[in-house]
């Protein structure tokens, strides 16, 4: 499926409950790449109408600084989901975070519903059950709006009985990354849950996710933001090598060669998009810190 999606930086995604306008406004001060305002599990059912009203009032007014604006809706097929779609200021929303996705039909229904609203947000798909993970590729192929998968480890471990450890979650994480790579979208890792105020543990967990191929991670606490951003930002050495590879292939392009020698090693041309993406992330990070 062809995807003509605006590619966003999503090193860190902060989920903030929409029934807390103070937290929504306060989140703008954090160095987060993607802001997710929650209408689902983080909001008491009795306060969801209040949360929707906050969204309608605040999303057009807050200064996101060009960063991604996301709303987590309720599960497709529920009455709460339809109420969400009717209330969200969709022109001010870049993406919807869709929970509990298990089948392609859920995305197709949402695609049609958004088309009826004349809205164009992308879809960040939550895979948080064994069935959802097993159906990842078919789910991603169901909608050209799908821009990312988010791994929900909490429900996944509850249903499988697995521990929340790198070893126990390796298969699910790898499967999600593989499906994301197959359809050309991002993979966003689950939050680090073993200590919300543990930046070292958060950073180590984020580095493991980056090694698997994730491009970012959800955070629940401000103390996690810097640790996650650092993990998914190329080091100076990584960025310098990426620049040498991109420049080397620019130099050999006219000759029609498919390999170049960089730092004494042969590198293939299919490495260039990954290196360019690394340079884009480095430039974005530099722009956020300047």
TrEMBL record:
Membrane-spanning intervals of the chain: none
Keyword Metal-binding in record: yes
Binding, Mg(2+): 128, 155
Full protein name: Citrate lyase subunit beta
InterPro entries: Aldolase/citrate-lyase_domain (IPR005000), Citrate_lyase_beta/mcl1/mcl2 (IPR011206), Pyrv/PenolPyrv_kinase-like_dom (IPR015813), Pyrv_kinase-like_dom_sf (IPR040442)
Keywords: Lyase, Magnesium, Metal-binding
Species of the source: Caballeronia pedi
GO biological processes: oxaloacetate metabolic process
Binding positions for substrate per the UniProt entry: 72, 128
Cofactor entry: Mg(2+)
GO molecular function, one term: lyase activity
Domain HpcH/HpaI aldolase/citrate lyase: 11-222
